[in-house]
Design a protein that fits this description.
The protein is an alpha+beta fold. The protein is built from 6 helices and 5 strands; from the N terminus they run αβαββαααββα. The longest helix has 24 residues, at 119-142. The structure holds adenosine monophosphate. The site of adenosine monophosphate (AMP) has 13 residues, from strand 3, helix 3 and strand 4.
């Protein structure tokens, strides 16, 4: 299964973005209102300049307390993003996410972000694929 097939199977293909300079408190509101675990920081809405995950916020809250909520996201976000392309394989994405210990990956096409896939999207797609393979093999064995 390829990334573009996973994107197609998602109910929403838009990516939640916020602008650099946004406060961490406002970013947390975006996460909470939209029931998402991370948000992309993008100056144009098309590029992925950084990512801020609920984990980043919890880590700083634990270290510095609520004062960190008035910081700008720019200081807390991860800037070195690992991204993928539409033609990447689900297995390779899963490997990168597992090894890098992160659960979100922006999909980039021609320099622009066209989607975001989560580890949950990849696992769901793989389970569907494995179940279809199982049914096909059973059909072959049973002669259907
Ligand atoms: P997550 O598991 O995705 O909520 O994020 C765990 C940590 O990895 C956080 O510090 C994120 O900022 C960071 N992170 C999330 N996605 C990526 C990515 N695609 N590339 C690099 N770092 C990431």
């Amino acid at each position: 299964m390829l990334v573009h097939q996973i994107l197609k199977s998602k109910s929403t293909d838009g990516v939640f973005t916020i602008k650099p300079g946004t406060s961490v408190a406002d970013a947390a509101t975006v996460l909470s209102n939209n029931r998402i675990g991370s948000v992309i920081i993008s100056a144009t809405g098309k590029t992925a300049d950084g990512i801020l995950s609920e984990r980043d916020i919890v880590r700083e809250l634990g270290k510095r307390g609520p004062a960190c909520m008035s910081d700008k996201v720019d200081d807390m976000m991860t800037k070195n993003l690992v991204t993928c392309s539409c033609d990447d394989r689900a297995d390779d994405i899963l490997k990168k996410m597992t090894e890098g210990r992160f659960r979100h990956m922006p999909v980039i096409k021609d320099g622009e972000m066209v989607g975001l896939i989560t580890i949950g999207d990849v696992v769901k797609a793989r389970l569907t694929e494995l179940s279809m393979e199982k049914e096909a093999l059973e059909g072959m064995i049973m002669g259907h």
